[in-house]
Backbone:
């Protein structure tokens, strides 16, 4: 019996609109039609991917849901398919594509679809953030602030993100925090604090190179507040994967963490701004979904 494959396409995510318009033809050409029957849906408003996935689950009309978009669109679908037998596929058409890059998905349409055809399925952790979930990472502080700036910009993709970083870095004040993990406590003044499920923010910026998607652990990085003139050095350390040597970075690995700040700080979940919060509980939902990956180890 053929697998039932549902594509959910976010037509406005990322910067690759021309390539995305080629997707229907590429599916017809490269998908293994002896293995799959498929349907194609386009989102029309924020949260529509979630609504489409709910309809699919209610009608029991899919074995696989493949999301053509970014981590935010993937997040909407994962909220619906948690702890189910429906498998998640990803076609990375977002801006950063942190989860898809960790899973080994390439940026070429033909190769994306070939990975769906190979159908290597792995169990993957999901992160619970209060009443929400994250698939890739959740951050408080500067990266949450940048996600808010990024949402307001007309420029998308890497350059939009870079503009947000440059605009925000010099004015962001940092925030006093307390972090509880594994029976221990950290405190101080942070520039940003990010809990990773995947190994990166996106754009292959591997802030958490040791992160695994199915180890039941969060990889938490705290970047302490620092003199702003050192920003180019810190960025270079991250790009060269040398930030673990910096005295401004602290790294912990934990199944769950609790966070408290003196004042509300900007939050993002999978790159989407989530307002300001003063306290947060983050924990791992161990192997909560089934995901199609490019290789065996995730």
Residues:
């Amino acid at each position: 019996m053929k697998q039932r494959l549902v594509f959910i396409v976010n037509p406005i995510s990322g910067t690759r609109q021309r390539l995305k318009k080629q997707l229907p033809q590429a599916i017809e050409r490269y998908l293994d039609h002896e293995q799959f029957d498929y349907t194609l849906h386009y989102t029309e408003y924020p949260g529509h991917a979630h609504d489409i996935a709910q309809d699919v689950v209610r009608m029991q009309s899919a074995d696989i849901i493949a999301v053509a978009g970014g981590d935010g669109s993937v997040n909407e679908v994962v909220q619906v398919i948690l702890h189910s037998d429906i498998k998640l596929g990803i076609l990375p058409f977002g801006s950063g594509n942190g989860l898809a890059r960790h899973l080994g998905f390439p940026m070429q349409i033909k190769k994306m679809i070939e990975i769906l055809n190979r159908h290597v399925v792995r169990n993957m952790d999901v992160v619970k953030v209060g009443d929400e979930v994250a698939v890739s990472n959740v951050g408080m502080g500067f990266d949450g602030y940048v996600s808010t700036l990024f949402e307001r910009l007309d420029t998308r993709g890497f350059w939009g993100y870079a503009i947000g970083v440059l605009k925000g870095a010099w004015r962001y004040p940092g925030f006093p925090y307390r972090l509880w993990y594994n029976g221990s406590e950290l405190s101080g003044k942070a520039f940003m604090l990010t809990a990773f499920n995947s190994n990166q923010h996106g754009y292959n910026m591997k802030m958490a190179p040791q992160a695994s998607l199915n180890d039941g652990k969060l990889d938490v990085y705290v970047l302490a507040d620092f003199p702003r003139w050192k920003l180019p050095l810190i960025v270079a350390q991250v790009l060269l994967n040398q930030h673990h040597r910096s005295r401004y970075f602290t790294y912990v690995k934990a199944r769950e963490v609790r966070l408290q700040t003196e004042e509300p700080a900007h939050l993002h979940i999978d790159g989407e701004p989530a307002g300001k919060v003063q306290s947060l509980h983050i924990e791992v939902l161990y192997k909560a979904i089934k995901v199609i990956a490019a290789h065996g180890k995730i």
The chain has a mean pLDDT of 90.
